[in-house]
Amino acid sequence: MHAPTTAQPVQRKATRPRADALRNRERIVTAAREMFVEDGPEVPLDEIARRAGVGNATLYRNFPDRDALVREVVCSVMDRTAQAAEEALAETGDAFEALSRFAHAAADERISALCPMVSSTFDQHHPDLVAARERVERLIGEVMDRAKAAGQLRADVGVGDLMVAVSQLSRPPAGTGCFVYDRFVHRHLQLLLDGLRAPARSVLPGTATTMEDLRQA
Q1: Which ranges of 11-94 does DSSP label H, i.e. alpha helix?
Q2: CB hemisphere CA count around 128 (13 angstroms)
């Protein structure tokens, strides 16, 4: 007689989202980011779905409510900003020029649009949001520290100072269309960056601003 064989457990591959499902999700996030910049975070979700080229059911399958979509947009913008900081750190040339390229890339992300969204009702302590925020703040700090260590960035500015300035400069004045204003953003940002170079030409009032200072304001 043959010894009884023991049934082996069936190894199941972890299910992965289909490529088309991932593309739909990316289209939704891209459309939401664009419309949040243009019209604010209260834009109707069905209009976001229409711009993304998907049905309402697809949007709600990915993001069951507005808070989930807003959080994903905020995280995606921070992730892209962190990637720009990583690219700046990978550059081996002039540290201040790397900082400048990062600042222009951050402006292109329209981080000013995050301000009303971050102050909305969604959970600001969600693990995904906290992780994205900590990563981007750490990387921006490293970019700035490297420029300071090279003697190129004035020592009395902090991460919060830079990000407030980039945010303000990438936000259109009241009554001005986003796309009309776009052509001025990088010109004015370069004027700011020139003022950040060491040696400092003046003494700044107050102390260097951190991102924690901004959260507590």
Answers
A1: 19-39, 45-52, 56-62, 66-90
A2: 14
